[in-house]
Amino acid sequence: MKEADEIFVTNSIQEAVPITCLLEPTGGSHIVGNGEIGPITRQLLEQYRQKAGK
Description:
Layout: E1 7-11, E2 15-19, E3 21-23, E4 29-31, H1 39-52
């Protein structure tokens, strides 16, 4: 996952939740991509909200 440009999780309640930082078991952290919502995740959220009428 450290190599990923974007990561998100999804479920029926929270739509798609972007993951911008991974926490290490040792207490450190790893920024995903550039640390912001990526373009694919943003597009997925926009399309979902249009279809859902939100």
